[in-house]
Amino acid sequence: MRNLKNTLFYLIIIVGFTALMYWIVEQGRLLEVGRKIISPSASDNQWTQFLSSLFHNLQHPLALLLFQIITIVLVARIFGWIFRKIGQPTVIGEIIAGIALGPSLFGLYFPDMEGALFPADSLGNLQLLSQVGLILFMFIVGMELDLKVLKNKANEAVVISHASIVIPFALGIGLSYYTYHQFAPPGIEFLSFSLFMGIAMSITAFPVLARIVQERGIHKTRLGTIVITCAAADDITAWCILAVVIAIVKAGSFVSSIYVIGLAIVYVLLMLFVVKPFLKRVGDLYAKKDNIKKPVVAIFLLTLIMSAYVTEIIGIHALFGAFMMGSIMPDITKFRNVFIEKVEDVAVILLLPLFFVFTGLRTEIGLINDPYLWKITGCIIAVAVAGKFFGSALAAKFVGQSWRDSLTIGALMNTRGLMELVVLNIGYELGVLSPKVFTMMVIMALVTTFMTGPALDIINFIFKTKDVIIPSEIKKNSEFKILISFGNNEKGKSLLRLANSLVKKQAETANVTAMHLSNSDEMHSYNLEEYEASTFEPILKESKKLNQEITTIFKATGDMESDIADIAQEGHYDFVLVGLGKSIFEGTILGKVLGFTSRIINPDRLLDKFKGKEGLFENSPFDDRTRLIISKTKTPLGILIDKDLHQVNKVFVGVFAIGDVFLIDYAQKLIYNNDAHVTILENNRQTKNNFIVENAFEALEQKHPDNIEVLNPEKISKPLLANQDLVIFSLETWKKLVDDEVTWLTDIPSVLIIKP
Question: 644's torsion region: left (phi>0), alpha (psi -120 to 50) or beta?
Fold first, then answer.
């Protein structure tokens, strides 16, 4: 009855008000009498009208801006992915993407298309959005700085850092003496030109450097601490110097620049002694609450915008205000995490690529069209490397570092990345740098950032050393060493339980290592230790419950598959365990690995059966990451499909071929260490009369007669499998069973798939 009333009410409302609107429109037509109404001619082609309207919409500034953003973000992500795959920072690929979309490549071969995509009158919108992105990014950079490190370990680091600024600054000014007459824009004083050349030579990209240190696994070492501290001190000093340089250039006279610098000092003092305590008090009030309310977020973001606004008005650029605001944020990890999560994705993914493309539109490689100009570019690169690389290295050697560590510090401090582009764009906008010099300096920024990874590899090769990843306590001569790699805590605990079942009674001669790999793009240097502690806390609790001693490895990485393989080999592990589901595979399931999809006999029944589970049969064959891990890992590899594995008391082992005989070793370990009951399925057709298989079975039955049961395939049943805690197959047998669409696989518990 109620549904009928609702239906009638709905019909009355829709029909009644539609009729009312129609009547009003008809009455409105009478108001047109006496007016000159312009309408399309009836003879006009309707299709032509539609196309004309569509073309007009495409040219609308908002539509054009949205299309530019779509194109820029897609191209930047593609280039970033390509460069990440070849071991370079993502930012290099994104910078190259910006240059590729500009006149150097896209505009060179498709000038009309480039003109349509980036018409001159649309660049203002693009520039404003990119500046907003830079303000947000500099806010993040400021938050990433750990000022406690500067307080505690600033002695030799500050010496190295300031040497790495002063030496290249001096060389940059020296270079400007020889290039001013030919390359400085008309009307620009030598002081302005030389100061910008100096600051451009002395900048270091702290975010890129921090990620390289994390990815190389040296962030916990003394060397890593020194480098991070040097970069932090370098960033703060360089941005303060840049503010002074901008003030001098904008002011136009010495007296005016003194006024600007004076206002900047007042601003800094207010931020440190008024704004910072206020923000800390707000942070302390909300530090223990689960959610930070929107009004609190608004206070901080409004303060950010006001800080950027004040520095822009003073004349030292809005980016300095954003950087300053980030550096005085409350030293509360939760607070910083909230703001980074809210700001970073929009800034880094959406808005920063606009800055790269805007820089690319200004970068015309075609201007360097003479061998002489390429020689000048080479000289700029040489001066930049000599000042930053060798200047930092010599300073590090002077304060007592080894040659290997000194050169490593030099290579890392030579990384310029995005920070260099920011400085160059400021110089370009102020008219201090000409298009030719700007292009040369962009090339220098790319080369010096690109060379960081290869330079570190060469240094390690020369000194016959590797970046530290494996903790020293793991390098003992254990009889059996297991490496478990996890991403999700619950999967990590299941992997630890399984590892414990394999070595429980061999504590003195076995070693279990828990490793967590995290995407380096998601890591920040300021909270690295806290993030690591929170990641391993559940695993360490589980290890205490199991009375299983473990060592831990934490690493930020851009290539999880290679790192798993490399660490396993470098640590001389005997067995590697990885989990699926929400582990290192970030939600992918081995079911797709195993090719059990549209060919399933009764897919609807299987979908119902696996609904809500992290099942075995999602989608299709091996996903790319799983294939890479399997192909790259030379150490015996176990892939656990976890269905809440809590104990390993009942184990089913499938020996379907002669090549599966190695599984008996794992069965024996589970029996000896965990007193597990093992049911072995022997495929007689494949293994009958094989000396190796028969000997293995006979030896196992003699040693553990009460823990072994051998079955033939005819006795296998779903209830038997459902009653097990763990099912073990070799990788080849598992793939064959899936290809054969063996239906009893649908009811099995947790599965361990082993590649010998």
Answer: left
